[in-house]
Write a structure and sequence with these properties.
Blueprint (H helix, E strand, L loop, with lengths): L6 H22 L6 H17 L23 E3 L8 E3 L2 H15 L3 H5 L3 E7 L2 E8 L2 E7 L5 E3 L2 H4 L16 E10 L1 H13 L8 H9 L4 H6 L2 E11 L7 H10 L9 E3 L5 H11 L7 E8 L2 H7 L1 E2 L2 E2 L2 E5 L3 E14 L5 E12 L2 E7 L3 H7 L6 E6 L6 E5 L28 E2 L8 E2 L6 H12 L11 H9 L6 H4 L6 H5 L6 H13 L2 E3 H7 L7 H11 L2 H12 L3 H9 L4 H13 L1 H13 L1 E3 L18 E5 L7 H10 L3 E2 L9 E4 L5 H9 L2 E4 H9 L4
Parallel strand pairs: 2-13, 21-22, 23-24, 23-25, 25-26
Antiparallel strand pairs: 1-6, 3-9, 3-10, 4-5, 4-7, 7-8, 10-13, 11-12, 14-15, 14-17, 15-16, 17-18, 19-20
Helix pairs in contact: 1-2, 13-14, 18-19, 19-20, 20-22, 21-22
Bound molecules: 2-(butylsulfanyl)adenosine.
Length: about 700
Amino acid sequence: MSSKLTPAELYNNLQEKIARWDEAYHGHDEPEVSDAEYDHARLELSRLERLHPELKNQNNPSERVGAKPNPAFGKVKHRAPMLSLGNVFAEDEFEQFVSRAGNFLGLSPEDTENLCFVAEPKIDGLSINLTYENGQFTAGTTRGDGLVGEDVTNNIRTLKTLPLHLGKNAPEFIEIRGEVFMEKSRFFELNAEQEKRGEKVFANPRNAAAGSLRQLDSNITAKRPLGLFVYGLGHSSHPVAKTHSEFLDQLREWGFDVNPLSQRIDHARDIPAYVEKLARERSGLDYDIDGIVFKINDISLQNRLGFVGRAPRWATAWKFPAEQAITHLKDIEIQVGRTGALTPVAHLEPVNVGGVIVSRATLHNEDEINRLDVRVGDLVRLQRAGDVIPQILSVISPDDTNELPSRGSKFIFPDHCPVCGAYAERIQGEAVRRCTGGLTCEAQTVERLIHFVSRNAFDIDGLGQRSIRAFYDLGFIKQPGDIFRLSNHKEELVKLEGWGPQSVDNLLSAIEERRTIPLSRFIYGLGIRRIGERNAALLARHYGSFENWLNAMRALNNDEKEEYETLSAIMGIGPAIADELTAFFHEPHNQTVIDDLASQLTIEDASSPIASGPEGHKLAGETLVFTGSLTTMSRSEAKAIAERLGAQVTETVSKKTSFVILGEKAGSKAKKAQELGIRTISEDEWIKLANSETQ
Ligand code: IVH
């Protein structure tokens, strides 16, 4: 890979690469490379400019605005995570959301119907966390990955509508959440000015807001017309209000802008009318909104409802219908994923869909291609809804256009892997065709490695898709354990194009940092089918330590029935996942990969979930089974409470069960408990136990 290119060629290549990455990042919100790789390319470009000033030209991206998150911004952990929202698109889906909440709270249908909500336009901007200590603004951070954001305090301070001091009622510590955005009219003005000055124009107001906030020089941010609407609470040392509408009043009193269209809605049944009204007004607003957020007004109910995954049970976003556009299909490419799934991807003539340039869309699978009868060369209708990958809705028939009715030939879905050539099988009842090459298939191996280093797994800064592919081709990294031996190739690495001693050092130290890893990230990083973040966390919590988990998995591999049953009984795991784990551990290569990793890593025990709840509660570590119907709360709420206190809830009674809570009409599980001599308690006793102090 060592280069024989002239400096001018190198410079042009780098410029093109950066422009493409910028476009992917700003135009599509789909970064193609890791931050470190991007920063490295930019540094390299500046270095070339210093050495060869004559190369500098107008398109120079290093002089453009709107750069990627920069290491110059410090990283800050949010006290309370910044989560996302579930979506609904229609009335029946909203009704389901409300009845799920009602069921969780054990409300009657009538009380469910009378739940009171607050509606807020969903601003399409950039979410921000504002920290105030003793009433003084002390920090502003971007959302980042939800747990850790970038410190943009100095930039956010320049926003004219940000109160720097809260007045009366300010808690000692409070995090306030909101959205930074740019008004459409100001966005067009800004773009016109940028164009006049020969500077970068932004694809949409959201990108303009993001680019303006992420300036290294806060004087530039100060000149940008940024607005701020606040709508949420993170961590607070004291409760602020009893209802969300009172909370919004308090925010207004402190001097914040709260969106004037926010409104309390006393009955769920009035919500569709509000949605219709706002959908009509949407185009007349001077800021982009992509839906409406509905939040249950009563904060004590919010607290009881809590979260499922990363989304609250007490709020949802009703999204407006997706944006559509028409374009030509240029090609269909079959991509091979980490688990061997063959996914058809449509390559399109680039087209603007609601402000974003789209050139790729998913075609899901073989059946979808047949259903649409889509062929290369066709004119297709495509849709983009929120953050979802754009999809093709239909083929525009030649009768509807002036085009000649000649079409390409029918697309034949391959029954062999396009990468390794192995047979691609489609199991009956499944929509997906999978390459059977396993780890002999290069595509699967590389995708697995990419998954291994990804953000929610090992999160290795500087090892993005491109570097993994390059290091794989060079033979430096063939399996995950090789990553931790990459320092053996240090001398070769520094000689590679695009790498230098500094960036190699950075990469190697980023790798060193990950030699210690939490068990859940480790399990997730292995990329086992159906083991996403949530299931990895469930497994980690259940088994506690790497050794326990590995022993159990080995037992599984020896077809030990009891282990299989224990595993299937973990709430949320079930037999399909147990089968996937069994299959994974049946493959000797996978065991070798794990042993190799284990010999190099320190895998941290899973901390009990009560680490964040009451310390050492009586129920911590116990295994409970609920049976029969509870009168004071739903089964889901009971389970959520038990888990908050550090207990595990399983479906079946076994020797490992600590006790069984008997609701009304308890049946076979009560009998099983008796047979096994396991303690049973009543609902009242359960409530006392759950409410008891720590011990
Ligand atoms: S509430 C736990 N309210 O939408 C509650 N979010 O899809 C989380 N957003 O990251 C957010 N307007 O950036 C909430 N009125 C509003 C909002 C809003 C815009 C954004 C926010 C969040 C994303 C969630």
